[in-house]
């Protein structure tokens, strides 16, 4: 039986750890929150008293934490000093590329293996075991990473060397943030021009404006049944998380001198929406800001 240390049992981590336990691994789980620990115990994990204890003797260690500061702290204080020789460390949180590369380097220097493996698929994907993982690690270690992630995954793609998983994640989410803002603007304009939204949806879905934000996750209510727009923009992918990912993309762009004017505009727009108090709404609720209907949210 594989022993896996799992640190960070929040919205995403809990379902992920539960799926690893269901697949037969011994999951030694830790979180700062007692409530999260209790849920993990109910889901079949072995609860431990600290991150160092979760790591001791584990063949693989997974972190699913809010941001880079939490990941660096836990890796440097608890994981790197306590992991068994040769253990595979996988960070699934969304963090900046530079930190991911630095931590991987420190792990290798300590005789360990490391991968960054951020995810797409949200809380529903974490619970269902259908996440899409984007992995940064040496090619010859990818099969080992894949074997650990498999019970939580629908797809596992090797993006490249250390940090490449995070690079893929922030580029994808920058594209998503821009495309959702574009679809929302198009609906807001269509409405002002007197177009029936359903008619516009049908036309754009079959024209060159077609994209995932329109046809799989439409921000206008009533057009794509599974979209958060049909449940008051609850659940889904929070505006606060989109805002975080767009900020990471802008920081990365500034570091390498990439021109991302639409990414910058999207970041400012979602940050404004978050600052207005809508950070806990799905990011597609941006449509209602653009329609001037934000008070109805
Ligand atoms: P969350 O805030 O719900 O969970 C984070 C957990 O980490 C919390 O339970 C917290 O108590 C715990 N934690 C914080 N510091 C800790 C420490 N030092 N030791 C142990 N536990 C600690 O966050 P989430 O929504 O689960 O997201 C986790 C990561 O996944 C983030 O980086 C996020 O950007 C990314 N992500 C989230 C989603 C989503 O839809 N929620 C989707 C894709 C990626």
Secondary-structure arrangement, i.e. CATH architecture of the largest domain: 3-Layer(aba) Sandwich
Helix content bin: 40-55%
Domain module count:
2
CATH level 1 name of the largest domain: Alpha Beta
Radius of gyration: 20 Å
End-to-end CA span: 48 Å
Ligand inventory: nicotinamide-adenine-dinucleotide
Instruction: Specify the number of helices.
Output: 13
Q: Helix and strand succession?
A: EHEHEHEHEHEEHEHEHHHHHH
- Under CATH, the homologous superfamily of the largest domain reads NAD(P)-binding Rossmann-like Domain
In terms of per-residue confidence, which ranges show pLDDT below 50 for 5 or more consecutive residues?
Answer: none
Strand content: 5-15%
**Largest sheet, order of strands side by side?**
3-2-1-4-5-6
Shape assignment: elongated
CATH topology of the largest domain: Rossmann fold
The main pleated sheet reads as: 6 strands, parallel
Quickly give the structural class: alpha/beta
Task: Describe what this molecule looks like in 3D.
The protein has 297 residues and is an alpha/beta fold. The protein folds into 2 domains: 160 residues, NAD(P)-binding Rossmann-like Domain (Rossmann fold), CATH 3.40.50.720; 130 residues, Orthogonal Bundle (N-(1-d-carboxylethyl)-l-norvaline Dehydrogenase, domain 2), CATH 1.10.1040.10. The protein has 13 helices and 9 strands. The strands form 2 sheets. The chain has a 6-stranded parallel sheet, sandwiched between helices. A 3-stranded mixed sheet has the order 7-8-9. Strand 5, helix 5 and strand 6 form a beta-alpha-beta unit. Helix 1 packs parallel to helix 6, helix 4 packs parallel to helix 5 and helix 8 crosses helix 12. The chain binds nicotinamide-adenine-dinucleotide. Nicotinamide-adenine-dinucleotide binds next to helix 4, helix 6 and helix 11.
């Amino acid at each position: 039986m594989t022993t896996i240390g799992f640190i960070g049992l929040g919205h995403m981590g809990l379902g992920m750890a539960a799926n690893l336990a269901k697949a037969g691994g011994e999951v030694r789980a830790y979180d700062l929150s007692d409530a999260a620990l209790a849920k993990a115990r109910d889901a079949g994990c072995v609860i431990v008293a600290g991150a160092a204890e979760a790591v001791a003797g584990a063949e693989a260690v997974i972190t699913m934490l809010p941001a880079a500061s939490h990941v660096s702290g836990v890796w440097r204080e608890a994981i790197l000093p306590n992991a068994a020789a040769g253990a595979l460390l996988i960070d699934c949180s969304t963090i900046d590329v530079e930190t991911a590369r630095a931590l991987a380097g420190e792990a290798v220097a300590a005789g360990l293996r490391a991968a960054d493996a951020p995810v797409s698929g949200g809380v529903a994907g974490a619970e269902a075991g259908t996440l899409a993982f984007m992995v940064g690690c040496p090619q010859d270690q990818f099969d080992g990473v894949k074997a650990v992630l498999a019970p939580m995954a629908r797809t596992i793609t090797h993006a490249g060397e250390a940090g490449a998983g995070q690079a893929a994640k922030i580029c994808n989410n920058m594209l998503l943030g821009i495309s959702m803002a574009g679809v929302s603007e198009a609906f807001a304009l269509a409405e002002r021009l007197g177009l029936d939204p359903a008619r516009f949806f049908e036309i754009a879905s079959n024209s060159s404006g077609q994209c995932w934000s329109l046809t799989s996750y439409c921000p206008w209510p009533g057009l794509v049944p599974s979209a958060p727009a049909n449940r008051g923009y609850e659940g889904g992918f929070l505006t606060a998380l989109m805002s975080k990912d767009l900020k990471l993309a802008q920081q990365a762009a500034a570091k390498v001198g990439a021109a991302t004017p639409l990414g910058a505009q999207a970041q400012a727009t979602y940050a404004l929406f978050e600052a207005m108090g809508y950070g806990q709404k799905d990011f597609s609720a941006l449509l209602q800001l653009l329609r001037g209907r934000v008070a109805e949210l």
